Amino acid sequence: MTLSINGAQKTVALAPHALLLDTLRSLGLTGTKRGCDMGTCGCCAVQVDGLPVLSCLLLTKEAAGKEISTIEGLGTPNNLAPLQRLFWEVGGSQCGFCTPGFLITADAFLRSNPDPTDQEIREAISGNLCRCTGYTKIIKAIRLSAKERAKE
Ligand code: FES
Ligand code: FES
């Protein structure tokens, strides 16, 4: 099967019921985290055709023919995406395990709602769990990102 991941074509051999999370991680895209493995924590979020999905609940074959975007496609350590930079600047990431899922979810959300209220941000990230930050700084980073994007 050929998949389009972060703009590149990847050919993978996989079992019929392989989950997208396992496929991505087997390709070395380990920024997509396995947390609960049951659709509860949001750590495994990726974008499929621009929409956030939980890769622990999606068969790989369901993503065939679509554009899959992972955290590795958002930015790099030497070239952070603006949203990543803001998470870093305001302390929206502590242990970091949840951070890729938040970034992927927030990036898709800000495309669909460029000028969100804090309540709308809270609702957008309600499927992502963080045990470190208390969420306040995550919400702040997303709010600041929306403001930055509005100036572009
Ligand atoms: S690992 Fe997919 S939602 Fe937790
Ligand atoms: S930063 Fe540790 S779980 Fe969110």
Can you put this structure into words, describing what you see?
The chain has 152 residues and is an alpha+beta fold. It has two domains: 2-73, Ubiquitin-like (UB roll) (Roll); 82-151, Orthogonal Bundle (DNA polymerase, domain 1). The protein is built from five helices and five strands. A hairpin with a 2-residue loop joins β3 and β4 (51-54). The chain is globular and about 40 Å long. The chain binds FE2/S2 (inorganic) cluster (2 copies). One FE2/S2 (inorganic) cluster binds next to loops.
Task: Jot down its keywords.
152 residues; Ubiquitin-like (UB roll); DNA polymerase, domain 1; five-stranded mixed beta sheet; 5 helices; 5 strands; 35% helix; globular; binds FE2/S2 (inorganic) cluster
Kindly summarize this structure in a few lines:
With 152 residues, this protein is of the alpha+beta class. The protein has helices at 20-26, 82-90, 99-112, 118-124, 136-151, and strands at 2-5, 8-11, 45-48, 51-54, 67-69. The chain has two domains: 2-73, Ubiquitin-like (UB roll) (Roll), CATH 3.10.20; 82-151, [2Fe-2S]-binding domain (DNA polymerase, domain 1), CATH 1.10.150.120.
Blueprint of the fold:
Blueprint: E1 2-5, E2 8-11, H1 20-26, E3 45-48, E4 51-54, E5 67-69, H2 82-90, H3 99-112, H4 118-124, H5 136-151
Parallel strand pairs: 1-5
Antiparallel strand pairs: 1-2, 3-4, 3-5
